[in-house]
Amino acid sequence: MEGMELAAFHIISNVGTAKSLVMEALYAAREGEYKEAENKLIESRKFLTEGHHSHHQLIQKEASGTQLPFSLLIMHAEDQMMSAEIMSDLVQEMIRMYQEINTLKGTYSK
């Protein structure tokens, strides 16, 4: 495996790990473990960034005049990267919501 295929799998692997960590962050927040949730989000960003680096390299190649072939594998990798980004944004907001809900629960139970 080389070139485009390797880049695609590198993107898919990294953003897949990022998505898993984002979901782990959400599950931790649901249990009230906000520090663990934050740590999972920080770790997920590292993997997402790594996927972006691979993607950026492909964009640079094409921008410099190298014709890159159409690839369903690259299209899938880009789709996975976009869904990981969207999930990360939504989960961050959901974690804030869990925190607010738990704060309100504490206020009303006193």
From TrEMBL:
GO terms for biological process: phosphoenolpyruvate-dependent sugar phosphotransferase system. Gene3D superfamilies: Phosphotransferase system, lactose/cellobiose-type IIA subunit. It holds the Pfam family PTS_IIA. Mg(2+) binds at residue 79. Its cofactor is Mg(2+). It comes from the Bacteria. One of its GO terms (molecular function) is metal ion binding. The modification Phosphohistidine is found at residue 76. Keywords: Magnesium, Metal-binding, Phosphotransferase system, Sugar transport, Transferase, Transport. Binds 1 Mg(2+) ion per trimer. InterPro entries: PTS_IIA_lac/cel (IPR003188), PTS_IIA_lac/cel_sf (IPR036542). The active site is at residue 76. This is PTS lactose/cellobiose transporter subunit IIA.
